[in-house]
# Entry
Amino acid sequence: MPTLQDVARIAGVSRSTVSRVINDHPSVDPRTRRRVQRAIKQCGYRPHAIARSLATKRTRIIGMIIPEAVSRLFTDPYFALMLRGATDACNRSGYQLILSLFTASVDSKTMHDRIVHNGYVDGVLTANTCLDDGLVPRLLDTGIPFVTIGRHPDARVSYVDVDNIGGARMATEFLIHLGHKRIGTITGPLNMTPAQDRLTGFLKAMGDNGLPVPDALIVEGDFTEAGGRAAMARLLEERPTAVFVASDSLAIGAVKAIQGAGLRVPEDISVIGFDDLPSAASLEPALTTVHQPIEGLAQLAVEVLIDRLKRRVQNGIAVQRVVLPTELMVRRSCTRPS
Amino acid sequence: MPTLQDVARIAGVSRSTVSRVINDHPSVDPRTRRRVQRAIKQCGYRPHAIARSLATKRTRIIGMIIPEAVSRLFTDPYFALMLRGATDACNRSGYQLILSLFTASVDSKTMHDRIVHNGYVDGVLTANTCLDDGLVPRLLDTGIPFVTIGRHPDARVSYVDVDNIGGARMATEFLIHLGHKRIGTITGPLNMTPAQDRLTGFLKAMGDNGLPVPDALIVEGDFTEAGGRAAMARLLEERPTAVFVASDSLAIGAVKAIQGAGLRVPEDISVIGFDDLPSAASLEPALTTVHQPIEGLAQLAVEVLIDRLKRRVQNGIAVQRVVLPTELMVRRSCTRPS
DNA sequence: TTGTACGCGTTATCAT
DNA sequence: ATGATAACGCGTACAA
# Structure
């Protein structure tokens, strides 16, 4: 592999000049610039990223950390879409993405150290961390630039999120407008902010419309289909006419539980989900749900992070937060109460 | 951040000695070793990966390349499981994984160059590349160590794969033993080796048992649910009593098409899939399918790659190939012909 | 066993 | 505008 030195020899200039050409430094004579560029082409020179990183202290690599709790949701397309969005945004801006999933073989602290302290990453993206896994505090402590996908209560963290509260409220109000009064909800794990927020939105809609929500109509699930099935089984005893389910995976399980009990969706019970997974439209019945732009959210997260990385050279390190709107996808799984 | 120099000062030795301690070099006095280790603890020294890489020319980073064609299958849990396996194996061996998905924003050649030529990755893992996307030839050309997940016909490539031919044959023979004679198949995209191999296994089983396979009983799909639905719609006209479907996603679509036509699975048509996705067991009816160890396959791929990276220092660069067995998961979607 | 000195490929500072 | 020269942090022959 040719180096700066080689190019310099061929072009008959010094390394410094070649370096300037490569980095688009303004003060270099147009003629020598062309000479150097020819030399670069000729010997097939490509800058060595590692050497460059050693000198600049920047790698153009960002680390994506996904804790164990979420990687359990692995069978959920959510994860794949997020990754697609993140890598796509990275591609666009010439960054690379190092992926690290917490798995059983290595604990959270070790992973964090390996990612953060080895100097390979300029910044970190982290998705849907639980409130209690200690990752965010550690990141704050380290001082490495990071952005979370999904809000975090700490005032110092920058995040991107979708309007979970608004989306949940919108979904619930849709049920209310259809005429439902006895509405239940299946929540996600309440140690995750999206689950909390969707419950909040649900309760707000119900409260605003003067509808009571007895405790028995709120069942906590775990964002999986099996969890949805189990939660719905319990909810069935309370005979709601409609259910707001905090994720599509949960909703799929809930629908199966309803059908398994010999009831029909939506004739006996209306079901509305959250996420708008690719499969939601082709379920039987097609699932009414709240669309969230997962891929776009991840893209945005990367952009915000890169923006922070650039600003850091200056001193404008104010917290950045962006919340994206959701959208109601009306399909067949909801109808008026009979 | 403290450097070798700092540690050396504190311990009262030279940088070289500290370096030796860190790299477990044998020839260093136990007493000085302890002194150095104390110094390291004291100032919280951590080796700087980039500087180290510049000197050793190794990064302990492997790049995972997934071409566009596969990233379309994104909604398939296959992808997530593969990633989980790969990252897990990386964690275990102290490697990092740089993920790069080919997306619309950047073409294949550019991506390849960015990954391979910048010196950030020691080796490359690539999943299910199409035969015609040119990635493998480029990798061979570059000379970078790589392993593909899924076999590749070129004699120079190392790969790990599951026994697609054997699995398909096993599935087909299961149908034959049940008494089926008129058996159709829905294949994957035939520019991908797994799709080819599964078709081969199917044909072999049929041939070995003296069963004819008219062309009309072979329909090419694209590994998606929608594709399965469309393919099955065509296949229905031929009235097979059983169908071997080359993937579970396809099979899910096929089942829906059958049910949509007012027929029952398995009473009217038996369906057998391939993959054993997590959802296969909870479908209605539960899907009989061929289990393939996706996560384990990815782990293995990482291990083989790392093995090659280590051997490369020596000269044993023989091609390595491993094929993992599959397993038949008998569930409800197959029965004897009526 | 330990230290010296050089190299890894760039960037950046300072003269010229 | 260009060219020495010193970092960047570490590994490693080689010498001691």
